[in-house]
Write a structure and sequence with these properties.
This protein has helices at residues 73-88, 96-121, 223-247, 253-277, 332-338, 344-349, 386-389, 394-403, 407-420, and strands at residues 7-8, 15-16, 56-57, 66-67, 70-72, 126-128, 141-142, 149-150, 177-186, 196-204, 210-220, 285-286, 288-294, 297-303, 307-311, 323-325, 355-356, 369-374, 380-384, 427-436. The chain has 9 helices and 20 strands.
Amino acid sequence: MVNRVSLSCPACGTPVQRRSRYCNTCGSRLPLPVPVSPPAHVGPAAAGPAYTPAEVALPSAKQIQLRGDTLDLGELVNVVESSVRWWQAGLASGDAVTRQRAAREIEELSKILHSLAQQLASGRRTVRITTRLPELRAFDIACPACGTGNRAGARFCQRCGVALRAGEGAQGAPMPLRISVAARTDRGRVRKNNQDSIYTGSLTLASGTSARLCLVADGMGGARAGEHASRMAAEAARAQLEHDAARQSPVDDAAWQKLLRQATATANRRVYDEARQDRSRDGMGTTLTIAVITGDRLHLASVGDSRAYLFNGGGVTEDGALTAQLTSDHSLVARLVDIGQITQDQARVHPQRNILYRTIGTDPSVAIDTRSEHLEPGDVVLLCSDGLFNHVTDDELGQIVLQQPDPERAADVLVALANERGGRDNISVVLVRIERGR
């Protein structure tokens, strides 16, 4: 994460946010912010190991649930044990390199199992996590002129400089926003097929208004099965959302999240039933991350490890970082990061990074993550598959999309960089740029 530069009003000395155009204490116009530096070029040397493990989903009994700031040790043991059994299959391979790799990974996982078992034996049942999704910016007062969020106690809007009325709430009229979208999906340099599916379009609500719909799905279960699973999930989710949105206009975040859960559950059941009916597709599954933008609100649903990010040159988190991951990865390595066993950088190249414990279609029902966030001018929303973020760091993602105002060009740069660094998996990118409406 990139922290904001400390800024203060030259007139009154009050600390101000990077995206502020006016001081929210004295109303003085502020100097323009320093532009985001372009990303440093990193060539093929950063590609990392050429070995690419197959993406695999663990059975339903191996789910993990976050409970506040803790993980259940027994659930984590179940997932690690399943991963050991998956690597054990590699010991029967006819390829010596595969057998050696499997043996090394089993040894590594065994050390983790030993540590967890010792904690359970001592009577401990939960472990506190050290890594969480960041807290995003929060606002108390909406400007009555432009809709921008401001902190409690602000006297002037940080964006337009209009005087704020004392006691004004956060439910002002949504800021008029203009949205531009770019989408790319690429086979990469190693895979023979593209198992990713993407979609961008609009939802027509019962009220006659519209919302923007974007999604990314990353299939697994063999080339043809993975392609089929991601495509089926994307089509099922889109059709369900179109049907539900035409019948009702959700009035708040909870209603939108309910619609997204229903659409995701429909996609899950569709893929699961298809896999049971066709033995050639047994075990197929897919990730699914859905974004709906309506007014100045972003609504998300996710299963698996396809991600959603939010970027803004003025900061998107409480501590002013320019980049924030909005979704949790439902993977073993993500949970090992959560409890401090490995770092984020290690997770990007970890051999178990493709082992998922929650996916679409591998079980009759699935737990679905949802969230809603406020959008501002200058925001960029990114949906992507792991073929992108396993090659490009979060900071680099933010630098590229904030430096390049054209989302089409930014999407091309991201795909090209992932391919330059090895392209070991399919690469999917959906970019949504938010600008002030006219």
